Amino acid sequence: MFEDDFLPDVAALERALAHLGSHLASHKLTRPTEHELPTSWPHEEIASEEVIERLAPLVLDSAARLDQPYSMAHMDPPTPWLTWVMAQWNARLNQNLLHAGTSPAAAAIEARVMEWLAPCFGMSGGLMTSGSTLSNLTALWAARERVGICRVVASASAHISIAKSANLLGLELYEIPSSPSGVLDIDALPDNLDDAALVLTAGTTGTGVIDPLSRELNAAWTHVDAAWAGPLQFTQYAHRLAGIEQADSVSVSAHKLLFQPKESALVMFREADSSMGAISMGGDYLTQPNVGVQGSRGAAAIPLFATLLAWGKSGLAKRVEHCLDQAALVAEWVSAQPRLRLLCEPVSGVVVWKAKGGDTDTLHLLDRLQSGVASRLTLDSENWIRQVAANPILDSQSVIAAIEQALEEG
Question: pTM of this prediction?
Fold first, then answer.
């Protein structure tokens, strides 16, 4: 009776792909108007093909293009087309990693991804989550259950997910001052961390700086939030993460510098079996323990596995290194401009700068920059312009040309 809902004809799929192809060929960005969104939920059915025709311009043309040579506004990368195919396969199969009978290959692929990646950080294993907010929460939950932490100690520049996690877990949050660029002040740490999880950030959201990771600080548990800068570990810039292998847990966002679709992240543990065992629960209907915060979760490892397989170690390194190298060229140009001020040298592909004239000039300059080139950052009530190299197609000259044009218009 409903077979057509689940077994589409080839022509319908081809039309959907044609819309995607048209989107890829266009560089336009349109804003949805009120009349384009249905105001009420239809009572009668609408043919899927008609829905595709109605939603294609709304969904595809009203989103930012992240794969342009000047795209440097946020920590959101363009995704390789191979991941689109894998994501479509996942959507078709709708696998649930809680049920081994429905997802034997997906479970095996996630295990293999962990076998490949976790040892690079000195970890023995872990699991995937739908984002590093959940990865950080999972790590701190394991710390509470395994070693009985009562406090979370982190930089004032740590990601908001650390404060969220402490709140959810009933743990005291102790914030440590950071430098003007956002690096944790090691000398301001409490003398006794015997009851604390110390969170170090590898790549702050605002400025991309990396906390000191190589100091032995004797906390009950050390977690490194490497959501942004973690993939530097696979490149010639791995020395910037020196000491990360001493952590008890590490989180990485695969949907940042591993170039995956959204809802793809990892949490890894130095002692994976005992850490994951401490946060495992079961149910009569489950064929295996439910590890971590999430219940049902999909096969996010499949697109990641395909990417790692296609690019290999060297291919991934080249793409991440290109991002960092282009960011360094933009920063070098900014620092040479008499009208601009660079906050600090970029260490993980994040460039932060402003107009020397002050906040008003900075905001006016940001308004003149074309969409996708940069975003606004507020540090200590001061406005800055932030650019993030999460785009392997990034061309520093295109970015510089956009800034030059904005300066000329001023």
Answer: 0.93
